[in-house]
Recover the amino acids of this structure.
């Protein structure tokens, strides 16, 4: 029993996390609090940003802001796929590129967009990510300011005041979006309170579950013999 507990704890302490966003700032808005919790847990966090974020302001500045925001959340690596803003595809090539990245970093939990979104880049990112992460044990879909009312969360991460402040600080690192980001940061605080109320806590982030797999030592051994 002690061994089982030890194995379970080691897995929790050493998770490889990848968050996939269509644009610089999507990840911070949708999962910034959960990523701050992963950072405190000692997990390895990586960002995969599908676009260059060049539509609203100069491209390299937005990429630099994403790097600054990522540092606030303890992100180890930010990888940009370089698609054009508003033109993220959903085809075999993008699925393969995302899948290759997830395999290369041995991802264990992936945070992705929800398909319940009015922005075409977010929807295509969601579809491509679900396909690319088909062999990943834990896949959770986050909400965004453009999420539709049909977003129906089943999974909540409770956030402390500190963690919520860290999330908001990472959103404000996107200075080129200054006024918009300030408003969204305030809205994020209200949303965290609302989701917290649903989850019987003060603040929370919420997710749609694409897949969560619970593995014990016994089932792990069964899987190894199965394959
Ligand atoms: Zn976006």
């Amino acid at each position: 029993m002690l061994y089982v507990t030890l194995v379970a704890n080691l897995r929790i302490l050493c998770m490889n996390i990848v968050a996939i966003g269509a644009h610089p700032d999507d990840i911070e808005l949708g999962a910034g609090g959960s990523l701050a919790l992963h950072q405190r847990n000692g997990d390895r966090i990586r960002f995969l940003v599908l676009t260059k974020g060049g539509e609203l302001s100069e491209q390299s500045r937005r990429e630099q802001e994403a790097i600054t925001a990522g540092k606030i959340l303890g992100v180890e690596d930010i990888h940009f796929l370089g698609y054009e803003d508003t033109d993220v595809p959903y085809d075999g090539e993008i699925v393969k590129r995302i899948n290759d990245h997830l395999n290369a970093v041995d991802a264990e939990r992936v945070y992705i967009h929800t398909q319940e979104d009015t922005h075409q880049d977010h929807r295509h990112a969601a579809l491509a990510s679900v396909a690319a992460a088909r062999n990943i044990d834990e896949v959770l879909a986050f909400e965004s300011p453009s999420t539709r009312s049909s977003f129906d969360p089943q999974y909540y991460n409770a956030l402390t005041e500190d963690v919520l402040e860290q999330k908001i600080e990472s959103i404000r690192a996107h200075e080129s979006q200054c006024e918009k980001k300030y408003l969204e940061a305030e809205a994020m605080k209200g949303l965290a309170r609302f989701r917290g109320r649903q989850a019987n806590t003060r603040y929370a982030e919420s997710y749609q579950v694409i897949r969560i797999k619970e593995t014990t030592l016994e089932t792990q051994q069964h899987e190894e013999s199965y394959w």
